Amino acid sequence: MRAELRTIAMVARRELLTFRRNPARMLVTLVQPVAFLLILGAGLDAAAQAVGGLDYRSYIFPGVVGMAVIMPAFFAAGSVVYDREFGFLREMLAAPVSRWSIVLGKCVGGATIAALHGAVVVACAGLVEVPYTVGMVLGLLGLAWLLGFMLVAFGLVIAARARQFQNYMSTVNLIAMPMLLASGALFPLSGLPDWLGVVTRHDPLAYVVDPMRRIVFPLLDFSQPIAQQIYLVPSEARVTWGDTVVSVWLELGLLVGITVVSLITAVRRLDRDD
User: Fold this and answer.
1) What is the Cα 271 distance to its own chain's centre?
2) Average pLDDT value for residue range 115-131
3) Helices and strands (H and E) in the chain: how many
4) What is the pTM of this model?
5) Sign of the CA dihedral 190, 192, 197, 199?
6) Residue 240, H or E segment
């Protein structure tokens, strides 16, 4: 057990060192979420102010925290493709440690990197009129880390089969943007077309954005009638299955379940393919 834990720590540390040596990577992956929050959010906020004094940037803030995690997590999983191309993956798999330790190390390191990106967006809360509280900061960072862990595990399932990084990123790009748009990160979840409601309920990101909203929304002012009409009061802006509101614990359970399935699949693929 001590050797396996040491392996997890070493693989995670290698991911963090690789990330530290390429600071431009953080800048590139933060451009989109920051642009959504400050530029697109400001433009749409101007329209919202015209109809009722709303702050759209505050509304999308939880979703943008999740957005900031997506691409860094997938990039971290994609490092397996580079490791395979340069032969390092084969050396790790030949070591007298389990595949689980290698995969978990990748996930821990990648989730930490992804959470750092989320932390930058959380630090911008004051710029979009979201008040800082200890519970808000810790809650969002914890959910960002869990989301990053899940996405790295899912990315490893794809990376275990990819032979070129370009092929891996092509697949990821087909997944990432629809996942973001269908999660309800940028719009209320009620009143959607039936087909979009079905897609949203099958989107894992929706079950992370929703707990983030439950943390942030109580800090915002939804007292204006126009805010309640357009954005919904916090108690109604929830993921639902029919008439049942999905609880936070069930959402976290789904997140853990997807992560476990992804880990098992990634380990099996590495065993079979490498």
Assistant:
1) 27
2) 89
3) 12, 2
4) 0.83
5) negative
6) strand 240-241
